[in-house]
Amino acid sequence: QVQLVESGGGSVQPGGSLRLSCAASGYIYQRLCMGWFRQAPGKEREGVATIRSAGTTRYADSVKGRFTVSQDNDKNTLYLQMDSLKPEDTAMYYCASRLWGTCGFNLSDYPYWGQGTQVTVSS
């Protein structure tokens, strides 16, 4: 069983930065793909960024050039560096993992989810 615990959320002004972390435990050696998803109030959960165990990344168009996903395999930790934050980035951010298949943004492909960490961008 894979456990995922997010941290690093908070409140920041537009243009600011935050770094989210996701600590993973369990069958980490089988991990193929990890990703960040977000859900704003009244909206559906959407993909933000994913990274394969080999390092290939994918980003939603809305965050390209502003967000960077990375991982530290020694620490079993996933990161999301968020720069130039906008009010529309306000959401609950979730870490997710899957053990096989493609590394896309289809929510149903990810069986393992964290509890989420809140990010609020407001002046």
Shape: globular
Number of distinct beta strands: 11
Order of helices and strands: EEEEEEEEEEE
What low-confidence regions span 5 or more consecutive residues with pLDDT below 50?
none
Describe the structure.
The protein has strands spanning 3-7, 10-12, 18-25, 33-39, 46-52, 57-59, 67-72, 77-82, 91-98, 112-113, 117-121. The protein has no helices and 11 strands. A hairpin with a 6-residue loop joins strand 4 (33-39) and strand 5 (46-52). With 123 residues, it is mainly β.
Can you give keywords for this protein?
mainly beta; 123 residues; four-stranded antiparallel sheet; seven-stranded mixed sheet
Question: How would you summarize this macromolecular structure in one to three sentences?
Answer:
With about 120 residues, the protein is an all-beta fold. Helix content is about 0%, strand content about 50%.
List the helices and strands and how they pair.
Layout: E1 3-7, E2 10-12, E3 18-25, E4 33-39, E5 46-52, E6 57-59, E7 67-72, E8 77-82, E9 91-98, E10 112-113, E11 117-121
Parallel strand pairs: 2-11
Antiparallel strand pairs: 1-3, 3-8, 4-5, 4-9, 5-6, 7-8, 9-10, 9-11
